[in-house]
Each structure stands twice: as structure tokens, then as C-alpha cells.
Amino acid sequence: MIKVLSFLVVVLVLGFGFAWLADRPGDLVVTFAGMQHKVSLMVAASAIVALVAAVMLVWWIIKSVIGSPYALRRHFRARKRDRGYQSLSTGLIAAGAGDGQTARRMIKQAEKLLNVDQEPLIKLLDAQAAMLEGRSDDARAKFQAMLDDPETKLLGLRGLYLEAQRLGARDASLQYAEQAALLAPNVEWASTAALGQKTAHGDWDGALELLESQKATKQIDKDTAKRERAVLLTAKALDTFESDPVGSKPIAIEANKLAPDLIPAAIIAAKVLFQQADLRKGSKILEHVWKKQPHPEVAETYVHARLGDSVFDRLKRARHLASLYPHHAESNLAIAHAALAAGELKEAREAAETVLRTAPRESAYLLLADIEEAQTGDQGRVRQWLSRAVKAPRDPAWTADGYVSERWAPASPVTGKLNAFEWKVPVEQLGTVVDARDDFDSALAAKPVQSPPGREAAEPLIPAKSVVVSAEKPAARVVEADADIVDAEIVPVEPAVKPVAAKPEEPHAHERIASVLPSLTETAPAAMQREEEKLVIPVPDDPGVLAEDEEDRPNKKFRLF
Questions:
Q1: SS3 29
Q2: Is the dihedral of CA 395, 397, 403, 406 positive or negative?
Q3: What percent of the chain has pLDDT over 90?
Q4: Reported pTM
């Protein structure tokens, strides 16, 4: 562009010059060797310009002739370099596509056309080809050789880091990442991995310093840095709470201020305040986080804030906490646990049943089993609740990268990423669909067996197990009963007497069957209609000796054992 502009300027100057001379005619007289030559100014100017142009043309020709060998060498060298880079580009594409054979062929061509010492991409392509071909030792050796060159040292550390991760050598990968972080603090993958390593080893101060350097180099934004600092401070406070509760107080308070919605930060801050008898401030922190996301650990910490509280005081605190977020499953579970501890079994049952109607989960069924044990002592019903807990959806848990932990942790044990744990239902359990609401409704339809007033139950002469068999589907009913019934109803029978079908006129026959199989209960009309089809077959432990007239008689009883 500059050359074009310069040419245009020269042309304009010459044009104006000749135009000026044309308006001012004159003669130029030259005397040489006694002779006088007279020419016009226009002719003289044209001759001077032509002479200058001829000199420049001759000089360009001489220069071209002299520099032609160098120009030819430069031309062929540039062509060779272009071919080499073309081979290198093709090799990188082939390596990215997983074509190790083509990548290896392109490496050989690039080595012939390019200087290996001056082109680090050839070394990278060679290492990647070795990885594709499964030659891990050669790949690590090539990456290790890159460490000797300052230009390729970071590239070598990156390759060794990825290779160590692929082989599952977590400690080695973290060491390479730490070296890379020291060499280039602005590299995100290195600083993140080094941060995860310091967190895993409990080096909270070092992790905080590395986090500040990431913030200074703008690798992470301010909000992310604020959140991750709160996570590290929370982990530090949890680590030092038992040994130094006074020193952990400012750390926990700062973590809670940085992230008020971080549940572990709120819990540790509240525990520190409760230990120092600051019940109001600690409760306020837990109430704030409870309004955003109810959590069982928050409820546990809130209810047991004071060691000297009675069970009724704790029940009162549970009711107050639940009122801040009513109709939530965790609110009802908090009331149910506190009511069970206080002996308010009716309230505990109602709260637990509310959870099963709205959001059935495993812990609610287990809690109902405890309530059933304390309220009725019916072991059959207790085992029924326990069996339903096995099929129920799982409770939320601390989950990070598919890893489920009972406790919160600042970083993922899989990837080392900070703030990776989330309170949610584990992903592997989302595919299991259980119609827990219908199952629960059928369970509630069955009531515990109660003896009629003024009548005592007769002691059985022979202990026996009873099995309910349906006339329509005997095989299916037998299997279902065997799966659901743990302790069968004991039916008093007389020895050497044939089993008799239950009479429909008995007022408590249906209730006795419903107590054994609460999930198979039906409406009253339907139950009365099928009462005649149901048979209670006692299986005595000692059937005795058959009579002589009955030895040759075929056995028509349905025996399970």
C-alpha cells in the first residue's frame, strides 16, 4: 500500500512539474568543448527524467542477476516449509481423529521437511501418535523430553498430567499440575488441579493463597472466587472446630457472610455460636438458610442447640422451624423425629404419613417403622414398613460427579473441583420408579388388630402359620403372601381337625386378614364378596399321627412346606 501511494505521489509531482515548465517557456544553453548546445527547458527536463529512469532500471537488472541464486534458494525453502507445515497439519488432524497410522506417516514427512529442533509441534504430534498406538512408555518419554526445553516445558507437563490421569495415577497428575502452576500461574487447568491437591491434603492456607492468585489473574470471576473462598473457609472451620473452637469462630462467621446460602457454612457458624451460648444469633443463621433450602442437618443442629433442653423443648423448636417452611418434607420429618423422641407418637405418625403422601422416601418409611414399634409393637407392621423402605425412592444426599457421600466435602474426590457437592437425589436412583403413594395408601388402610372389649384372645393349642390363598389366583397369592408376610397371624385350631373356612358372619375375620396382609385389603363390599373364596390353612409344627382310616386317604391339603 505504501509503495502504491509513493508511486502516485511521484507521478503527481512529475505532472505538476512538467505543467509548470510548459507555462514558462525558455531555453537551456550548454557550452561544451567550444561548442554551444541550445535546447528547450521541457526537452532538458524530459532528458533528465529519462536518464534517472534508465539508471534505476539498469541497477535493478544488475541486482536481480546478482541475487538470483539467493532468491531461488529462498523460494525452494519456502516451498519446502509450506509442504512440511501441510504434513504437520494433516498429522494433527489425523491424531485428533484417532488415525494413528496416518499421523505416524505425516510425522515422517514433517521431520524430513522441517527442522525438528525448531518446531515443537512435531514433538507433540509424535507423543500423541504414541498414545494412540498404546505405547504409553514412549509417550511419557517424549513428554518428559519436552521438559528440557523452556519453550516446551509447559506442554510436556500438560501431556504428563493427562497421561497420569488416564492411567489413574492421581498423585502423580497433581504433582505435574503443581509444577505447571508454579511455572505459569495463569494457566487454569494447572491452578485448578493444584488447588484441588492442596484441598485434598488439608492445606487450607495454601489453597486460599492459590485462589487469590487465580482471582488476581482473572482466571475466575469475583462471584466464583467469593463462593470458593467461602467453601475453603468452611472446610477450615470444620477441621479446626474440635481442637480450637474459639479460633474457628471468625473463620466460620466469614464463610457464612460470603455465602449465606451455603448449608455447611451456616451449620458450622451456628455450632460455634451455640457453643458460646449465643443462641439467638446462631438460630437466626439456621432459620435464614432453612427458608431457602430445608436440610436435615440444619434441623438437627437447630433442635439440639442447647444441651440442657428437654425433649418437649426440642419438639417446640422443631415446630417453630417447620413453621418457617411449612408443607415441606424436611419440615414434617423434623417434627416427626422430635415428636417420637418426646413420646408424642400420634403427632409423629401424622407428620411421617404426610411425608409419604407428598414426597415418599426411604427415611420416612424407616421412621414409621420406629413409630410403629413404639406405638403398637406390631412386628408384622414394623417389618412391612421396613420392606417398603427398601423399594422406596432414596433420600437426597451429598453428591459430586456421581460420588455419594454421607458428609459434605469442599472438593470432589473424583475431579478435585471445588464446590462440587450438591444436595440432591443420587442420579443412579432416578430411574427406579416406585408407586410409593399407592403402596402407602394400601398400608394405611390396614389397622392394627385390636381385641374386642370384654373378650380375651384364646391361647392356641398348637402354634401354626396361616396362609391366605385366593381362589382365583392361588399361585400368585401364595407367592405374594410369602414375600410380604414376615410374621403370620396365629390361628387357634384343634388338633386332628380339618381346616374350616372363615365364616363371613364373624365381625373380625376381615380385620384379622387385613392385619396380616394390609397391602391386599379391599373395600368392605368387595371383601365380603370374596370372603368365601379365602381359606385359612394352618400348618402345625407337629401334625401328629394320622388315624388308621385316614392313612389310605389321599392328601388334598395345600402344603407350603
A1: strand
A2: negative
A3: 31
A4: 0.59
